[in-house]
Specification:
single chain, alpha+beta, 4 helices, 8 strands
C-alpha cells in the first residue's frame, strides 16, 4: 500500500516481538503480528522476499521468456539490495513487522507471511513550499497484504502495531506519516479510513520500473498523509 523504497539502513536490532491473535478469519484461521529480529538473516530474507514480490513482481509487462528472465534477475538484485540495506547499522529508529497466518487458530503453528509493514525515521518535508526545512519524522513504508487476506483486519493490525511501536521511540513523535501513489485509490482509502489526512501531493517521486533491459525510474505523484498519534 505504501511506497516501496529500498534506500534506508537498519536500526539497532529489535527483540522478537509477538502480539496476540488479532482477528479470526472467516475460514476459522487466525493471524499474529510479529516484529522481526533485524539481526536474524532468515527473518530478513523472508520479509525481503515477500516485500519485493508484493511491490514489484506483479508489474505489468511483456510475457516473453527473455523479458521474464531479465525481470527475475532484477528482482533478485532488488532483494539483495534490500537485504544489504536492512543489515547496515542505522543511526535512528526503524522497525519491521510481519503478519503470519496461524493454522487452526494455533499461534504456535504458523504458515507463511501474509502481510508486512515497516516504519522508519526519515528527514521529510510535508509541504510543497521550497523553503521548508526537512525534519525527522516516522514514515510508514512497505505496507502490503496478500490479496486473499485483504479486508480481514491484517492491514489494520499491522498499522496499529507500527503506531504503538513509534510511541515507544526516543525521541518522542506526536505524529506519523505515509505516502501512497496517486492512482492507488484503495491504499489512500485505507489510510484515510484509519484517521490519516492528506497533507499534499508530491509530483516528483520516483518509482522503480523493471521493464526493459536496464533499471530505470519513472516520475510519479504520491500523496503524503499524516496522522496524530493521539487520535
Amino acid at each position: 500500500m505504501a511506497r516501496s523504497t529500498l534506500k534506508h539502513s537498519t536500526c539497532l536490532a529489535a527483540a522478537l516481538f509477538q502480539l496476540c491473535i488479532i482477528q479470526q478469519f472467516a475460514s476459522s484461521s487466525a493471524f499474529i503480528i510479529q516484529q522481526i529480529n533485524q539481526d536474524n538473516k532468515h527473518d530478513l530474507e523472508q520479509f525481503s522476499t515477500f516485500c519485493i514480490d508484493m511491490f514489484h513482481n506483479n508489474q505489468a509487462g511483456s510475457d516473453s521468456i527473455v523479458s521474464r528472465k531479465w525481470k527475475d534477475m532484477k528482482l533478485a538484485m532488488l532483494q539483495k539490495a534490500q537485504m544489504l540495506d536492512l543489515s547496515v547499522p542505522f543511526n535512528g529508529n526503524r522497525s519491521v513487522f510481519v503478519a503470519k497466518a496461524c493454522i487452526n487458530s494455533d499461534k504456535d503453528n504458523l504458515t507463511e507471511i501474509i502481510g508486512c509493514c515497516e516504519v522508519i525515521e526519515e528527514r521529510i518535508v510535508i509541504s510543497r513550499e521550497q523553503n521548508k526545512t526537512p525534519r525527522v519524522r516516522p514514515i510508514i513504508e512497505n505496507l502490503a497484504v496478500k490479496e486473499e487476506y485483504r479486508r480481514q483486519g491484517v492491514g489494520k493490525a499491522l498499522l496499529e502495531a507500527v503506531q504503538q511501536n513509534v510511541q515507544t521511540w526516543i525521541p518522542y513523535h506526536d505524529d506519523i506519516y505515509a505516502q501512497v501513489e496517486e492512482d492507488n485509490l484503495k491504499a489512500k482509502e485505507f489510510f484515510v479510513g484509519n484517521n490519516f489526512e492528506v497533507v499534499f501531493a508530491d509530483n516528483d517521486c520516483k518509482k522503480d520500473d523493471l521493464e526493459g533491459l536496464t533499471f530505470r525510474q519513472t516520475t510519479i505523484t504520491k500523496f503524503m498523509l499524516r496522522k496524530a498519534l493521539d487520535s
